[in-house]
Design a protein that fits this description.
Blueprint: E1 2-4, H1 14-26, H2 34-40, H3 45-55, H4 62-73, H5 86-95, E2 100-104, H6 108-118, E3 127-129, H7 130-133, H8 140-149, E4 158-161, H9 164-172, E5 176-180, H10 189-195, E6 198-200
Parallel strand pairs: 1-2, 1-4, 2-3, 4-5, 5-6
Helix pairs in contact: 1-4, 3-4, 8-9
Amino acid sequence: MFFFDMDGTLIDSNRIWKDVDREFLARRGLPYTRAYYNGVAHTIMPKAAVFTKEFCHLSESTDQIIAEWMELAGQLYDRVPIKPGVRAYLRQCRAEGRRMAMVTSSVPSHCHAALAHLELEKYFERIVFAHDLGLEKQDPAIWRHAAELCAVRPEDCTVFDDSMAACRGARAARMRVVGVYDGYFAADEPEMRGFCDVYIRSFEELLYPLRKA
């Protein structure tokens, strides 16, 4: 069973959230710092809102913070680009009879908008939303839950993700991990290369060469 992350793995959307974070903080005269990035980059939106409220000493409620983030993100997921090699690799996996599902920290509405725009939903038999479960992807429980939903053993699963935290969670659940490069987590590349079973800069690296007739 193959489990794919979405943001930063299949689609080039992490830049959206960096821009959202910068604008959100700028509206309050606050800088975008490494400490803030570390607090929001690896978690689900409700927990990121709690962190933001406490870290920035804001009077707004977490619901108001989330609403502003959603407003700033706007309709960007309706036109977010797919990453190189992804569509071809998903087709290749389907041709091989691979079972595929998605495990994502994305907000469901954003996820469905992106998948509809890019016509990718047909490749996945199930989408598991960390947002709905209240779990972070660094927690092995979400990966065990995904395996259980798909009626497979965790050790028979491979996870594709751009986040070091998510890869650690999947490995703790006894899954194989393929680290995927994304500029948002570029600083983690050396650590991911040493940790993951496989590390790729692009899904084009996993495509079979075309056979000559």
